[in-house]
């Protein structure tokens, strides 16, 4: 099944803004590939200030590194990804969406819309 993950990773070091997001995407990608899944696309959406102060593991966050990942995996792997995202202190927020690829619309449409929205800002 095709899934789309939108996540916000913490920015632990201001000099290495995307370090946590890269490590998080690598961790999820390895989990998908080890379980015979396929990572289709990873798009970094950049570092942006959060709309409000968000807390994770009693740590306040003001900025976040946003990214979107499109991957195929089984439902058991999807549950494992959700469990690991929930327990990972690097993740501020995450949203996992099942994409219905049997429809006639483009699979990566939300990724393309997000990139277009960032270019107009």
TrEMBL record:
The keyword Ribonucleoprotein applies. One of its GO terms (cellular component) is mitochondrial small ribosomal subunit. It is found in: Mitochondrion. One of its GO terms (biological process) is translation. One of its GO terms (molecular function) is structural constituent of ribosome. Signal peptide: none annotated. SUPFAM superfamilies: Ribosomal protein S6. Component of the mitochondrial ribosome (mitoribosome), a dedicated translation machinery responsible for the synthesis of mitochondrial genome-encoded proteins, including at least some of the essential transmembrane subunits of the mitochondrial respiratory chain. The mitoribosomes are attached to the mitochondrial inner membrane and translation products are cotranslationally integrated into the membrane. This is Small ribosomal subunit protein bS6m. It comes from Candida boidinii (Yeast). The lineage of its organism: Eukaryota, Fungi, Dikarya, Ascomycota, Saccharomycotina.
């Amino acid at each position: 099944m095709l899934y789309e993950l939108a996540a916000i990773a913490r920015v632990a070091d201001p000099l290495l803004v995307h370090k946590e997001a890269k490590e998080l995407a690598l961790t999820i990608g390895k989990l998908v590939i080890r379980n015979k899944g396929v990572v289709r696309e990873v798009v970094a959406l950049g570092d942006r200030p959060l709309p409000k102060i968000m807390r994770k593991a009693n740590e306040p966050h003001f900025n976040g590194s946003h990214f979107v990942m499109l991957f195929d995996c089984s439902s058991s792997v999807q549950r494992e990804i959700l469990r690991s995202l929930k327990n990972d202190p690097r993740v501020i927020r995450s949203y996992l969406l099942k994409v219905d690829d049997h429809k006639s619309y483009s699979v990566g449409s939300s990724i393309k819309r997000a990139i277009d929205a960032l270019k107009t800002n």
